[in-house]
Design goal:
The protein is 54% helix and 13% strand. It is an alpha/beta fold. It starts with a helix and ends with a helix. Helix 2 packs parallel to helix 7, helix 3 packs across helix 4 (99-108) and helix 3 (72-85) packs across helix 11 (219-234). The protein has a six-stranded parallel β-sheet with strand order 4-3-2-1-5-6, sandwiched between helices.
C-alpha cells in the first residue's frame, strides 16, 4: 500500500534534515519565520537533538551596509575570520545586504558556508530576497520587515562581532549590549566611546585589546583574538 502524498512529503523532509545534520549543518530553514520567537524555538529544538560536543554558540555579525565604511582591510579581516570560524562550533549570523556578510558569502560560496560556517541569514521582504539571494537556500530566514529582522538578529545571539563604526552598526550593537549581550568590536583605530564601553565587559587582556584596536594588526592576529574571546565567552 502506497503512502498518502502528505506522508511522503513528511518522510522526505525528515530524511533531508537528517542528511543535512550528518554534513554538520545545524539547521534547515526552508520555512519562513516571521517572529524572532519562532526562530529561537527552532534553534533550541534542533540544538537539543545534537550531541553535546556538537552544540553551537550563536554569534551575530554586525557590520556596515555602506561600502564607504568597509575598507579593504575590513574585507581581509572578514575572510580571516571566516576561515577560523569553519573550525569552531559557531553559528554565524548576519544580514545578506551588509558588506561583512556579503564578503564572506561570496568568498566561500553558499554550499561551503552551509556545511562549515553554519551561516544564518536574516532577511526582510520575501520577494526582494528571492530575486537577490535565492542561492542561500536553507540558511535563510525571511521576516516581514527590516524591524522584525533586526529584532530576530538581536534575540538569536548573545555574542556579537562588531565591524566598523557607522551609525547603524553602532545602534544595533548598543541595542544588543543593553539586552546583556557581549560585543567584540574590531574598530581598527577608529575606537569610539561605545567601543570602550563594550571592551570593559569583555574578558580581555591588554595585548588582545591592542590587537583589535591597532591599525597595524594583521587580519590573522585579529581573527585569532576574536575566536579566543568567543571561546571564553561561550564557556
Amino acid at each position: 500500500m502506497s503512502l498518502p502524498a502528505h506522508s511522503k512529503i513528511a518522510l522526505i523532509k525528515k530524511i533531508y534534515i537528517l542528511a543535512i545534520k550528518s554534513e554538520g549543518i545545524m539547521l534547515s530553514f526552508r520555512e519562513q519565520f516571521f517572529t524572532a520567537d519562532d526562530v529561537i524555538k527552532k534553534i533550541d529544538a534542533t540544538r537539543r537533538t545534537l550531541p553535546y560536543s556538537h552544540r553551537y554558540v550563536n554569534v551575530g555579525f554586525i557590520g556596515p551596509n555602506n561600502p564607504e565604511y568597509f575598507s579593504s582591510e575590513m574585507q581581509d579581516i572578514c575572510l580571516a575570520l571566516g576561515k577560523r570560524l569553519t573550525k569552531e562550533r559557531v553559528m554565524f549570523i548576519s544580514r545578506p545586504w551588509s558588506c561583512s556578510g556579503r564578503v564572506i558569502s561570496q568568498s566561500f560560496g553558499a554550499k561551503q558556508i552551509n556545511r562549515e560556517l553554519n551561516f544564518l541569514l536574516i532577511c526582510d521582504k520575501v520577494n526582494r530576497v528571492k530575486k537577490r539571494f535565492d542561492w542561500w537556500g536553507d540558511s535563510m530566514i525571511v521576516g516581514e520587515s527590516l524591524e522584525d529582522c533586526q529584532e530576530t538578529l538581536l534575540k538569536v545571539a548573545n555574542i556579537y562581532i562588531k565591524m566598523g563604526y557607522d551609525d547603524e552598526t553602532t545602534e544595533v550593537a548598543n541595542k544588543a549590549f543593553e539586552r546583556g549581550a557581549s560585543i567584540i568590536p574590531i574598530p581598527r583605530g577608529e575606537t569610539t566611546p561605545h567601543d570602550e564601553k563594550f571592551f570593559k565587559k569583555l574578558p580581555l587582556t591588554i595585548s588582545q585589546k591592542n590587537i583589535l584596536t591597532n591599525k597595524r594588526s594583521s587580519p590573522k592576529d585579529i581573527s585569532r583574538t576574536v575566536i579566543q574571546l568567543v571561546k571564553k565567552l561561550k564557556m
